[in-house]
Each structure stands twice: as structure tokens, then as C-alpha cells.
Design brief:
This protein is mainly β and 213 residues long. It folds into 2 domains: 18-68, no CATH class; 74-212. The chain has 2 helices and 13 strands. The chain has helices at 2-13, 115-118; strands at 38-41, 44-47, 74-77, 82-86, 105-106, 125-137, 140-143, 151-160, 167-174, 177-182, 188-189, 201-202, 208-212. The strands form 3 sheets. Strands 3, 4, 5, 6, 7, 8, 9, 10 and 13 form a 9-stranded mixed β-sheet that branches. Strands 1-2 form a two-stranded antiparallel ribbon. It has a two-stranded antiparallel ribbon with strand order 11-12. A hairpin with a 2-residue loop joins strand 6 (125-137) and strand 7 (140-143). The longest helix has 12 residues, at 2-13. 32% of the residues are buried.
Length: 213
């Protein structure tokens, strides 16, 4: 009898607590059900007036790692956990590796990508891997090993620089990458004494880096 009374009571009171306004809930165009004061934005309930909800929080208020993005401005490339992340970088301001966030880091190679994915002409921008190259003459481009003539004058990655003829294709892949970009004094500035991407400078916000899990 007591159980029956409790059940009736639950029906009358709905037996739930209204979610607090600062929690993040999933929603959709078909079911845009959000707590009062929130609106469905990009499949997530967000406080009114906030354009982008915190994707790190799941519907139960716990951290949902599957929704954590590795960068502020980017998109997945391929199906193996690689992201193309846009952004300028410089050794004196924002270093390249800092574009990758939430446990992601600069891709040391391109073996998680197919050549078709990396060389896709739909990629509007060049996304650098941690892969300096060496050019010793026309069509003579290889991975950089050590220093010397032509060392570090090109860098490998995916996509192509927009608005300038700086991206070409190597005959042999470097760390899985075929596309490479020439160093140029107004877009991509290379430090020929240091083979880390953190020591290079990219002045075009359409370019960026490759981030891997």
C-alpha cells in the first residue's frame, strides 16, 4: 500500500528535479527540448546568449571525451583520429603545437591518412605535420635528415596553400606525406636551423596544423 501511495505521489510530482540552467544537454532539430533559459545550438542545449555550448560536458554532467574537440577551428580529416586545425602560428606568439588541445598533439607523420584524404583538393589551406623537408633542386625533395644545403626549405603536410603557388607534390612520401609547401617570406617562414614546427611561422589563418590523438 505504501508503495502504491509513493507511485501515485511520483506521478503527481514527476519524480525528477528540474536540471540546473548551467548544465549541457543534447538536443536536435526534431527534438529541441532544453531547460528553461536554454536554446538548442548545434545539437546541444546552451544558455541563451551563448553561441557555443561547452562540448566537454555530457548529458549526465560528466566529461564526455567523445565530444572533446582538439582545436578551436578545425575538422576531422579521415577516420583515424586526425584533425586539420586552422590558425596562424609563430615561435614568438602562438606556437604551432599550442593549436592542438585537449590531449591532442602535432602529428609526427601521415600514416593515419590515405593519400586521397591528404591530397584532397577540397582542403582549402595547408595543414602542416611535424615533417620538415629538404630540397636540393627541381623535383628533388626528400625528408630532412640533419642539416645542410636545402635543409628545412620545405615542409610536408596535407592540402594546399591558397592564393599562392607554394604547394607541390613529392615523388616520394616523407613520413607518409606527399604534399609539401615551399618556405616563403610572407606566408610560411622557415627557420633553417631548427626542424621543429614550433620554430616556424605561418601567417595565413587558412593554414594550420595536423593534430593527432
Amino acid at each position: 500500500m505504501r508503495l502504491a501511495i509513493l507511485s501515485v505521489s511520483c506521478l503527481l510530482t514527476a519524480c525528477f528535479t528540474e536540471p540546473s540552467a548551467d548544465r549541457v544537454w543534447k538536443c536536435s532539430v526534431d527534438q529541441p527540448l532544453c531547460p528553461e533559459g536554454q536554446t538548442c545550438v548545434n545539437d546541444w542545449c546552451a544558455k541563451d546568449g551563448i553561441a557555443t555550448p561547452d562540448l566537454a560536458s555530457g548529458s549526465d554532467g560528466m566529461l564526455d571525451m567523445s565530444m572533446v574537440k582538439p582545436c578551436v577551428d578545425g575538422f576531422p580529416l579521415g577516420t583515424q583520429g586526425v584533425w586539420a586545425c586552422r590558425g596562424k602560428f609563430s615561435p614568438t606568439t602562438t606556437v604551432a603545437s599550442s593549436i592542438c588541445q585537449n590531449g591532442y598533439k602535432l602529428c609526427a607523420d601521415g600514416y593515419r591518412l590515405t593519400d586521397a584524404e591528404c591530397s584532397n583538393t577540397a582542403l582549402k589551406g595547408f595543414f602542416f605535420g611535424e615533417a620538415p623537408g629538404k630540397s636540393t633542386g627541381p623535383n628533388a625533395v626528400n625528408c630532412a635528415v640533419g642539416t645542410g644545403a636545402g635543409w628545412g626549405t620545405v615542409w610536408f603536410g596535407c592540402g594546399s596553400v591558397q592564393g599562392a603557388s607554394l604547394t607541390e607534390r613529392a615523388n616520394l612520401a616523407c613520413r607518409g606525406f606527399f604534399p609539401y609547401t615551399l618556405c616563403y617570406n610572407s606566408i610560411f617562414v622557415c627557420d633553417l636551423n631548427d626542424g621543429r614546427l614550433d620554430k616556424q611561422k605561418n601567417e595565413d589563418a587558412r593554414n594550420g596544423v595536423l593534430c593527432c590523438e
